[in-house]
Design a protein that fits this description.
Layout (H helix, E strand, L loop, with lengths): L1 E8 L3 H10 L10 E3 L2 E5 L11 E6 L9 H5 L6 E3 L2 E4 L4 H13 L6 E5 L12 E5 L4 E6 L2 E6 L10 H8 L7 E4 L8 H6 L3 E6 L2 H13 L6 E5 L13 E6 L9 H7 E14 L5 H11 L3 E15 L2 E12 L2
Parallel strand pairs: 6-7, 11-12, 11-14, 12-13, 14-15
Antiparallel strand pairs: 1-3, 1-4, 2-3, 5-6, 7-8, 9-10, 15-17, 16-17
Amino acid sequence: MTGSCVRVPTSEGEATRQVLAERDLLDHGREITVESGTLYIPVTDASAVPPAYDVVERDVPERETQTTPADVLGFEPSYERLGDVVILDEDDEARARRIAEAVVESDLRVRTVVNRASKVKGELRVREWDVLVGDSTETVHREYGHEFRLDIAQVYFSPRLATERHRVVSQVDAGERVIDMFAGVGPFAVPMADRGAEVLACDLNSAAVEYLRENARRNGVEDRLTAVNADVRDLADEYANWADRLVMNLPHSAGAFLETAVALASEECVLHYYDIQHEDDPFGPGERAIREAAGADYDVAVETERVVRSYAPHEYNVCLDVRLTAAE
C-alpha cells in the first residue's frame, strides 16, 4: 500500500512517533518499517505534518491487526505515554480504572498506568499520582536519540514539549557555554552538551539533579555537564558574565529570575524565556520584563516569538528567543 510516511533516523523514531501521535497523524492501518537505519512512519495527512519532518511517498505493508485500548473499550481514550508508563487524566475513578484495564488487555508495551491525582504544585513542581497498574513510577523516556531516566512522582517532566526542546537544542553550537537555570532531569541540558556545549545545569530538586547526573552519564556527556543542586540565584557571582545561552523554562515564575539571567549573560547571549500569558498579549509582558531587567547594560533583540501550546482557556505557554548584546 503506497502512502505518505515521515522519514527519520531510527534514533529519533520514538520521539517522532510521539509528536505525530499528539497531532493524531499516525496511520494505524499501515506498518512502521525500517531500512538501513531509517524509519518510515505512515501518516494520514502529509500536509499536516510539521515542516521540520521529511515526508516521502513509500509502499509499506498494511498493519497486522493489533488490539488497542479503543478496541477493548469501544471508544478512544485519552492518554500519554512516557517510556513504559501510561498517564491518564480522568476525574472519574471508575472510568480511569476501566481505561487502565483496557491498556493492560491491549498490545501496548507498558508496565505502569497512573492517573493524575493533583495539579503540579509546590516549589519543586511535582504531582501526586494514583497508580492503577504496576508498582513503580520510574521509567526511561527516549527523545530525539537521548535517554532520560526519571520518576514522575519525584520530578516534573512533560513529553509534550519534545518538539520545543529539539527546536532550542538545534540552535546550539559546539563550544558554547550554556546555563539551564531550571534543568530538571536534563532534557535541554543533556542534548546541548551532546552538541558540544559546556553546560551548567541547575535545579532545586535534589532528586531531579541525581537523575540529571545519571542521564549525563547514560548519554556520555558527563565531561561537559556540571549539575548543581541549588537556587540559580546563588550562582550569579561565581558565573557572572559566563553564559552564551540561557534556558529559562519555568513559565509561571521565570520573570523573578531575570536579574540573575542578566548577571549570568556574557557580552552576547541568547535567552530562551518561557512564559504563561493571556491570548490578548502573549509575548508583550515577557519582552517588557526582559527589557526592564537588561536596562542600559544590554541591547535586547527579540528573534523568535513562539506559542508552544495552549495552557488553559485563553492562555498560552510561549517562548521568546531573545539576544542580549552588551551596550557599548
